[in-house]
Amino acid sequence: MATITLDKLTKRFGRTEVIHGIDLAIADGEFVVFVGPSGCGKSTTLRMIAGLEEVSGGQIRIGDRVVNELDPKSRNIAMVFQNYAIYPHMTVRQNIGIGLYTSKLDKDEKARRVEEAAKLLGLEPFLERRPAALSGGQRQRVAMGRAMVRDPVAFLFDEPLSNLDAQLRAQMRIEIKALHQRLGSTIAYVTHDQVEAMTMADRIVVMRDGHILQQGRPMDIYSNPVDVFTARFIGTPSMNILAGGIEGDAPVARKGGPILLGVRPQDLLIGSAAGQVADTSGLTLWGPVTAVEPTGPETLVHFDVDGETVIGTAPGDEIPEVGARIEARAPAGAIHRFDASTKKALEPS
């Protein structure tokens, strides 16, 4: 395995710069997830690492080698795409092993690698089947197996689960994470889905407009976002952001306030749960219910605060009526503060 280092990495298309001199070091064996909205530059960055996009400035090192000028096959990395790109006329065995056909390995070693990859991925019963007889998740495993048999120093994944339904995505998230733990491989993974990022990554890299906004362990970013964009992008449902200020010791929501108050729906408690928040320096909101989303263990409650929709959480067996006026409370420790002008996080007061 190997480290991957980006040093002042830049990408331009014509006169338009889309990646703005980013720096990043991925440790040997680390699982790093690039996350951000469409057009943020995450896939372009991955494709430059793979050698599929030309570097406009800066350096990419894989291990100790600068690879800017090396073609993809000389970088000894493997890439798995959103499109499985497996051959319909070939069996699973042939698809997994196709990347070895031109290698100098002997026949027995090629067969051993295919069998080993199939065993790790649970594909042994399907080796003689063709892709048409496989599920979407099984086809994605075939694409992963084809990457694995090459014994690369790093794996690059570009939105590999986007074509799967919700249940299969959840299953494949677990399988890819378990595979990483077994192989100890270096992985750079691109997704727009923050749930994938939170559940799979050792470290998340949040990107926007060709810049890295924040990087860190998933819960560090969730708990301490550096700006409003990251606060709202990481976490489901999105963090509530309200204009406000501080009166005495307590944060208060009010239009035109000098700061922005952020509180996650899971921390903004309604109904009997609100009664458990005795912190007088916390945030209290009132407003009429506009919608409810029972999810089983909890109920997400949408309500209006001065024309802004806010989401809070009630116990699963408490479903308020639409139009009812409710009270929601969050403890002081759950309140995030951001500068209203720069949208950057403020130090806790």
UniProtKB/TrEMBL annotation:
One of its GO terms (molecular function) is ATP hydrolysis activity. GO terms for biological process: carbohydrate transport. The keyword Metal-binding does not apply. InterPro entries: AAA+_ATPase, ABC_transporter-like_ATP-bd, ABC_transporter-like_CS, ABC_transpr_MalK-like, ABC_transpr_MalK/UgpC-like, Mo/tungstate-bd_C_term_dom, NA-bd_OB-fold, P-loop_NTPase. It comes from the Bacteria. GO terms for cellular component: ATP-binding cassette (ABC) transporter complex, substrate-binding subunit-containing. SMART domains: AAA. Belongs to the ABC transporter superfamily. NCBIfam families: PRK11650.1 (NF008653). This is Carbohydrate ABC transporter ATP-binding protein, CUT1 family.
